[in-house]
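Review form for a predicted model. The reviewer records the input and the model, then writes brief findings.
Reviewer: anonymous (R2)
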Amino acid sequence: MGVLLSAGRAGFLNLLKPPGMTSHDVVAFVRRLFGGGKVGHLGTLDPGAAGVLPLALGGATRFLEFLPPARKVYRAEVTFGIETETLDAAGEVLARCDPGPIDPTVLEAACSTWQGLVMQVPPRVSAIRQSGRRAYERVRQREDFELPPRAAEYHSVRLLHLQGAVALLEVDCGPGTYVRALARDLGHELGCGAMLSFLLRTRSGPFFLERAVTLEELRSDGVTEHLIPIGEVLVSCGIPALRVDPLPLRRGLELPASLFGETDLPEPGTLVRLVERNGQTLGLGRVLESTSLHVRVLRPVPEGAAS
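Model under review:
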């Protein structure tokens, strides 16, 4: 298997993205601080948005594809009476009107309808591919097109504050949901149009705003000072544990059920954390059938170890 990246140089970052930077700019910034090592993200934020941007560094990037879909929570500022091309404050204004006094009861009722799995038209200015091209590229070329509705999951949309034509909402939703589209649709429901004037992500899966670190803290303290261990993140994601006896594991290895003692394997297809007797996470596996388990990915080994 070769020598793996040391565990001290692998883990996750709970980063506080500032407004005005793209997520890719933030990744490039962290990569420079990390000495050019691998850096991946768990879901981007629009340039004007701020908040939790989880990153995987070094060997932790190998776990990204196996993490369960992350629940997202946002504080969204919605301004009624303005419609823009991008559905947020960054875009060209397409229409304005006087929304008059917004009735909080009416707005709360509109918010309450956004529950469960719904079909919603995503923003035209987005990275969604249509006809082999990104939608935002087609907008730049002034092409006339429409995106079809797609599934979006909402756990709750709550009105926190309303002042004049500006509302502050808490949006609890699934991955891939566009809060800009929600602002647009609420504006249509109230008959006056609306845009997303600011967005703050307060949660992305097991990563919360209260523990996020700034770019300034990374620069002054160093990246490794703020790395979250891979095992800690996998535990927080709720991936069930399966204890394995000490043995030389490698990626792609198929383990017979007899190695797990009296423990019954979960149902086929289940992703599990492979843990040692002391609870230390070794990696991830996928149950193939009731008699075997397939090792999918291993965490980096401790400093000085090789495999």
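Findings: The chain has three domains: 7-67+207-232, 72-204, 233-298.
Further findings: Confidence is low (pLDDT under 50) at residues 1-7, 302-307.
Recommendation: see findings above.
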